[in-house]
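TA notes, week 10

Several of you asked for a full example with nothing omitted. So below is the full record: structure tokens for the whole chain, then the designed sequence directly under it. When grading your own attempts, check the secondary structure regions first.
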């Protein structure tokens, strides 16, 4: 007996998994997503994506799709606790008269559709991108709604949510044979095997070949797109995604203070059965040169990674999502022309709705039937020619009618989180962690152990065996800390916070006071400060004097923590003057990762550069001992700490938030 499904999806990239998620919701359907293993080192487009979500002036239908996608991603992220979407805005710049006119047209289209788009002059461009040299830019257009995201994190979220709702994902070593069943439906693989009532081809660059084998020829052309991850010195905080029209490059902030950059893309069709997944050397060199020229205020830019992926072009650069011409219960979702990450959710939901209801108008501009039955071979055109073609020559007619409903099915998604209080340090080693924090993930087990050692309460939120939240309360830190990317877990922490408040990494609700996060990569660090004061690593016998200084400045709260020392992961740097400990700075070390904390200088010895020396010595030691990254939080806008951190070569890379309970009365 064949195993029967309502819908089978070929391809479980971002689009296939988004579709599985939507198809499996009410009314419940049996959905199968089939994925084919690729050669190691050959990413699919979802894995290669730069993760830029930008509002583009293609027209109302397209803007609605991008908005729907962004809304859905936000909800999915909050529900599934995955890497957040970062609203960072976008800045397009042009240096030529023609480019400036083009930006004007884009602005008109965006504004007509109610999307904020603001012309910016040289001063504002400098403010938005202080490290970039845009002095010769003639025009700039700023779109605050642009954002960045992790395409694979979203895909993971869809997979989990679709799986919980009953969708099935199978991975095969090779592409399975698919055949129409006489009388209707599809046979997948050898008999008796699997059968599906309907088939969706969402196989990215491989879709053209899959459809050709089924006897359907669609005007699609796979092409290569490349990207690099650059490590700047100093590391960078969030900045708007830059599209430089003349240099033909984009640059967006990436996690851990990096830059992700790419340029135009391949302009010839590729064969997805033999393509080069490594970035071309010329691409990497040219991009690095262009980025270094553009980011002239940075001390250095190192290429950390470079890669290529396959996108799919269509002749008019609109996607092909809908019924395959001449096919029976055969659908396709591809042809995103390099912009599928920002459109996947909206298009997948519309396709799922249309398959269910037979109403295809919301997908009219993406209708695969819009092309004549035979289309001449064409070359991919990777730039942005659709943008700004407002009067007269716009995109295909808008078929959406009223705004598409934005309900988000939640089947099963609010269940399954269990909260557990840890009773001993031994339990920490057994925990399996989901990524919870951009900068502090390596330290979370250490934080948990420290809290337990010092009498605090440690609670983990677990789902499917993974820690999705960590709460530390009542430890020597005073203020509680919560680490989570799941909204309902964060809400629980906020509801239960103590009078001293709670540190959280995301601004889950308004009113959090920012805590600055500073960091540096030791591999690029060079000492610019000469030590003016003696600094040495503390010995166990120094601990009583260090405790005295810390107690005097910070109160007795840290006594319990100091009593747990010495421990190999904790190192203190101290400076002495006039026979006493004048300043101290602590460092927790987990392999190549270090976190600076508890940094203070006795008031009597301030202004002598002791703070900068303590931090510089810390950096010297870290580099000498093979550390890679150091991070520190700076609380309460402490200007002296900030200055010392900057002098010692660290840079502001992000913010956390201190939430306090509402005042009474
Ligand atoms: C370098 C690069 C940067 C990009 N940057 C951005 C960006 O910033 N913003 C943006 O919006 N878009 C961007 N994109 C485009 C975006 O990544 C894609 O449009 C999107 O990921 C397409 O998803 P997909 O699911 O259609 O394809 P894919 O992710 O390629 O998934 C298709 C899947 O089908 C599987 N498959 C193949 N054949 C079969 C078969 N016979 N049976 C079953 N499964 C099969 C493959 O293994 C693959 O996993 C970028 C793309 C690249 C390459």
């Amino acid at each position: 007996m064949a195993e029967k499904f309502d819908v089978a999806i070929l391809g479980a990239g971002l689009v296939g998994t988004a579709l599985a998620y939507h198809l499996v919701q009410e009314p419940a359907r049996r959905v199968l997503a089939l994925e084919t293993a690729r050669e190691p080192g050959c990413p699919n487009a979802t894995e290669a994506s730069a993760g830029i979500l930008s509002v583009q002036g293609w027209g109302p239908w397209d803007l609605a799709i991008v908005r729907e996608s962004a809304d859905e991603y936000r909800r999915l992220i909050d529900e599934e606790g995955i890497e957040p979407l970062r609203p960072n805005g976008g800045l397009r710049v042009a240096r030529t008269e023609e480019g400036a006119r083009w930006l004007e047209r884009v602005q008109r289209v965006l504004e007509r559709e109610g999307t904020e788009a603001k012309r910016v002059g040289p001063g504002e461009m400098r403010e938005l991108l202080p490290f970039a040299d845009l002095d010769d830019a003639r025009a700039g257009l700023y779109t605050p709604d642009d954002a960045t995201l992790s395409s694979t994190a979203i895909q993971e979220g869809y997979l989990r949510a679709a799986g919980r709702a009953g969708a099935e994902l199978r991975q095969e070593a090779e592409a399975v044979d698919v055949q129409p069943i006489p009388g209707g439906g599809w046979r997948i693989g050898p008999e008796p095997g699997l059968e599906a009532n309907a088939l969706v081809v969402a196989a990215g660059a491989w879709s053209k070949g899959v459809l050709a084998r089924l006897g359907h020829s669609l005007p699609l052309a796979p092409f290569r797109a490349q990207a690099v991850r650059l490590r700047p010195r100093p590391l960078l905080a969030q900045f708007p995604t830059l599209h430089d029209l003349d240099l033909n490059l984009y640059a967006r902030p990436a996690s851990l203070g990096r830059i992700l950059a790419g340029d135009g893309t391949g302009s010839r069709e590729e064969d997805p059965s033999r393509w080069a997944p490594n970035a071309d050397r010329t691409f990497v060199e040219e991009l690095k040169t262009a980025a270094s020229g553009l980011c002239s205020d940075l001390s250095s830019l190192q290429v950390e990674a470079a890669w290529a992926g396959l996108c799919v072009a269509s002749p008019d650069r609109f996607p092909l999502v809908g019924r395959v011409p001449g096919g029976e219960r055969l659908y396709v979702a591809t042809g995103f022309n390099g912009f599928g990450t920002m459109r996947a959710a909206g298009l997948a939901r519309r396709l799922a709705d249309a398959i269910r209801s037979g109403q295809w108008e919301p997908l009219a501009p993406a209708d695969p039937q819009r092309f004549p039955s035979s289309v001449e071979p064409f070359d991919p055109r990777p730039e942005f020619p659709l943008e700004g073609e407002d009067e007269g020559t716009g995109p295909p007619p808008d078929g959406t009618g009223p705004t598409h409903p934005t309900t988000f099915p939640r089947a099963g998604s609010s269940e399954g989180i269990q909260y557990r209080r840890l009773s001993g340090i031994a339990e920490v080693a057994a925990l399996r962690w989901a990524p919870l924090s951009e900068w502090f993930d390596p330290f979370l087990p250490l934080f948990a152990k420290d809290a337990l050692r010092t009498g605090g309460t440690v609670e983990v939120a677990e789902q499917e065996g993974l820690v999705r939240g960590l709460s530390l309360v009542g430890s020597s830190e005073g203020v509680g800390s919560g680490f989570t990317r799941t909204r309902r877990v964060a809400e629980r922490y906020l509801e239960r916070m103590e009078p001293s408040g709670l540190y959280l990494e995301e601004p889950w609700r308004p009113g959090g006071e920012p805590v600055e996060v500073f960091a540096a990569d030791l591999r690029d660090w060079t000492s610019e400060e000469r030590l003016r004061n003696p600094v040495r690593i503390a010995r166990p016998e120094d601990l009583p004097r260090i405790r005295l200084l810390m107690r005097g400045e910070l109160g007795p709260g840290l006594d319990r923590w100091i009593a747990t020392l010495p421990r190999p992961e904790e190192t203190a740097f101290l400076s002495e003057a006039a026979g006493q400990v004048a300043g101290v700075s602590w460092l927790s070390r987990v392999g190549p990762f270090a976190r600076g904390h508890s940094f203070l200088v006795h008031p009597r010895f301030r202004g002598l550069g002791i703070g900068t020396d303590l931090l510089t010595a810390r950096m010297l030691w870290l580099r000498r001992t093979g550390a890679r990254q150091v991070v520190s939080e700076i609380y309460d806008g402490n200007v002296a700490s900030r200055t010392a951190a900057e002098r010692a070569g660290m840079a502001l890379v992000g913010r956390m938030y201190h939430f306090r309970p509402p005042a009474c009365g």
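Residues 10-16, 34-36, 38, 44-46, 48-52, 151, 175, 202-206, 210, 225-227, 262, 309, 311, 334, 336, 338-342 surround flavin-adenine dinucleotide (CB under 6 Å). Use that as a sanity check on your answer.
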